[in-house]
What does this fold into?
Amino acid sequence: MNYNILSVKNIKKSFGGVNALKGVDLQIKKGEIHCLAGENGCGKSTLIKVISGFYTHDDGDIEIDGQNYPTITPSEAIKAGIQVIYQDFSIFPNLTVLENLALNQVISQKKKLVNKKEFRDIAEKAVRKINFEVDLDARVETLKVADKQLIAISRALLDDAKLVIMDEPTTALTKKEINNLFKIIENLKKNGVTILFVSHKLDEVFEISDSITILKNGENVISCPVSEMNEKKFAYYMTGREFAETNVSANTQMSDVIMEVSHLSASGFEDVSFKLRAGEILGISGQLGSGRTELALSLFGMLKPTSGEVKVDGKTVQINSVKKAQKLGIALVPEDRLTEGLFMPQSIKRNITVTRLNDFSNKLGFLKDQQIDSESLKWIKEIHITTENDELPASTLSGGNQQKVVVSRWLSNSPRIMILNGPTVGVDIGAKYDIHALLRNLAISGMAIIIVSNDASEVISTCNRVLVMHAGRIISELSGSDLSEKSLIEAFI
Amino acid sequence: MNHFSIKKITKQTEFYVFLIIVALSLLIQFRSGQFFTNNNIVDLMRSMVVPSMYAICAFLAFVSTGPDVSFPLIAALSSYATIVISLNIGYKGPVIWLYVLAGVFGLLMGAFNGFILVKYKFPALIVTLGTSAIFSGVLFGVLKARRMELPSTMLEFGKSSILTVKNADSGLGSQLPSTILILVGLYIVTYLVLNYTIVGRGVYAIGGDEVSAERAGFNVKMIRFGVFCANGVVASIAGMTYSSMTQFALPNEFSGAEMTVIAAIILGGTRITGGVGTLKGTLLGTFLIVMVANSLILLGIPVYWQRVFTGLIIIVGTAISVRKSSGSVKKSLKAEVTSK
Amino acid sequence: MNKMPADISTNKTKLIRLPKDSNITRLFLTLVAIVIVAIVLKPHNFPSTSNIESIMKQLVEYGLMAFAVGITMISGGIDLSTVYIANMSGIVAGIYMRTFISPEASLSEQLMVSLVAMLIGILIGALCGIFNGILVAHFNIPAMLATLGTFQLFMGISVVISGGTTISRIPGPFTTIGNYRIFGFVPIAFVIFIIIAILLSVMMSRTKFGTRIYLVGTNAKSSKFAGINNKAVLIKVYMLAGILSSIAGLISLARVNSAKADFGSSYTMTGILIVVLGGVNPNGGFGSMTGVALAVVVLQVLSSLLNMFQNISNYYRDLIWGVALIGVLILNYMISNGKIRKLKKKN
It folds into this structure.
């Protein structure tokens, strides 16, 4: 089977003067697993929406399974066999699994009435295709993320999909769930379904895809079989920059123990003990549900411990509020910068200086603008936040720069211990390396850093040692020569 | 899968509201001996008619979009205009055509709401506040509405009843008005549409996730527009019913109902963020509020204190309801921030 | 667009920073336009001192309650109970003065009692506000529902305290002082309003408390993670809203020399209309007190102009305000859509 199931040529699309796609090609062979990669803003989402009919392209050709479509609507795309699974899965959290599975098909058949038996038949057929066991009458919002994704996939397969497009499918999955997903994808391939998935995760690209197409700034950079690609080339094509794995070496000068956690338990984890030294970068890894986020929250004063003890500088402390954590010099860069980190419509300046409001105001509470302005500019410069004006809303920044804003907001507080939860999730490779270099430099200057992350390459390239958590407990510690991608992945299972 | 498992039932907010109603009614019965009398029950049902109709409007709006506060004024304006017209032309025919005329007015007003909400996507609360002001201005400014007599056909309809009971002990009599049939009809139709048609499921879908609804193929705009048109019609029916039952056109008496109705449906388990809610919960919540309003006297609580109690019940009830609805979602996600 | 200041040290800051918000300019221009039209249409009635005086007098209560709604809305919530807090404060202050002011007492004694009454009224506003704040911040009840419940509650308590009657004929110097006119025509209430408007505007735009209100209203989760004490901020905001409401209630008491539990039930909606007109975003995190103040002036001027036309009854006011509200929303929508397109191009 060597022909192309999808062939798009010279696709152009612009929105109000902004050129999202400047003439993009994409060829996908039938039955292959094709990866579409690129930094944020490169146009991959737009391309998918054009292929699936959600957007109408300004110029270019779309050919699906040999048939030419000068324009295509969403329902035509579905009829042609294209199914898209978006990152948010397009599900209805307030409806049951049953309804989520059956509604799309019933609607496309232009039915008007609800036939409960028919719904059930459709739903059962859908989950059987991928051997998915689930309570059909449960309300979808009560299910875990991986199940929601499987619902989206089962639903997509109902319509005899020829090409299934998955947009960043592994973002919210545990390692086990990712493996399960990949097994399902392999099975689909065996059954003749072609898969296009969007990802920027290196390990996934190499693990599962047959070919890869990389976009940058709305244009093609390269398309090739994955065998012709390697990590260095990948990074180069994605960003245009050459990277050494990291050009800042690990800090070997570690000094005293700055934090000691003993038998700490709270909702989500128990009996956690470790020591943290100044100048050290400690990694905490574990899948979703391992308790790693809860641990981070607890050390920051957002989750009350039920037992155990935390010592900072040798003295026992009760970190029972964020304010207290701040006083102790602890900072947390949260997991989800969109909903937990940033104030999107507020200015970059305000986002950076939010933690220093007390310091930058006089006794009556009036803000000292000069100090605020200069602090904001200082960090923009030091951490290379790309923006021409710090009064612009934070929403105008790219993902990497947004993350840098959150990091700088805490650096502004001169913390001694900085915890970062998923610091480079959804961040393009260029910014990712910047942030890693920054963290290593901070460690060298004496800060103690905890990185909570599932990204094996990130953990290995930045941390001195790694604690692996599973089901709320620390199950192993890896460091030095023991610390490798292989050992880390093995530790997860 | 056993759909009627005890666990499932106890998880629903509606169950708790039902318990509260039972508890309260027993309490009232205990204190006054008057609750479970035939005339009290009939009186309660009579009091339920108009609020329950309003509750449909509030419910549909919340589930799909957000708070609609314009329905009392749609009720007022559509019924008043109909009454005035019928008096002017000396209408003597059956009351149903008056209802139809009012329904047309209600439909137009609802369509106005729907149009703005669909085209601009402003928050429903603010838009309906604005349209409510516009309708009020038309009613009192342009039409110079005031208390009016009703055409005889409405008077008769309002007085007609399907059941008369007399309390042997107190000698008090109560009548179950025919209008309750309209209420029952409305609920049946709404129930069937919401649960057995794709469009009806669409109402829930757009309240759950509008983007997903669009991708699934629902015509989000038409569904939302349709909801508000339907609201307009239901509101007009409520307005005509209210006027008939009070035997006068009383345009000043309409506004203010929206807040208690909204509280009633929240008590009944409708989620303030949309997408979740049931008709039975709506009825239960409305019944609870009506019961409280009507029966506090039976508990010996002076009229003065009634608002205090209504307010407290709203506060406590909605706190519990809100807790419950966010609780079921929280359990599934990884441990969220629990300390405040 | 603002360019980065070349030399930060010379960046002078004004005390009240007028936001570069075009909404304010639009409101101001609208005001000027309406005033011009009014002077042209009613050259004898409109520019008279008595008319200006009545405009100033009437907008104060609306304005103060609009401020209350405005700050709570910016914080991400809303306060539907302002009117009833106002009424309660008026009723309690009125009863206090009626009980404790005796006609034989000296003026200074009566003055003292009046002052205490006012303080009690304001204290009631603060307490009601704190109650609202606790419901919203501690029990996480959505503000719309919480204040819906408290509005019933406060009205109910007012009914109980007042026995369902109107509290009127307040003895002592309270009403005289309350209706005093500076320079013969500027009502003292208006001066109070201006002072409060300035203080609020400064607070919201220039203090850390104000900044925190905007942040909590923008994203309550992020503000928690950023170390802001959401609970404290919200309780303070609702308390402040309560105090503003109680001041409005006291002013009303002085103006009409009476207070009752269900007075002004339409003011709530008017308050919301005013703040949205004034540019406050109903979703929170955005808006300015200057805009709200301008909006209330615009509406009152418009209302006063309409009153001068005999055949346009008061009720038309609702109609016009409703149209104005929706019109402004649409206008803001079209303008901000244009802005966003420009921004996306730049970054």
Residues 303-332 of chain B form the longest helix (30 residues). Residues 12-323 of chain B form a domain with the ABC transporter involved in vitamin B12 uptake, BtuC fold (CATH 1.10.3470). The mean pLDDT of chain B is 83. The radius of gyration of chain B is 21 Å.
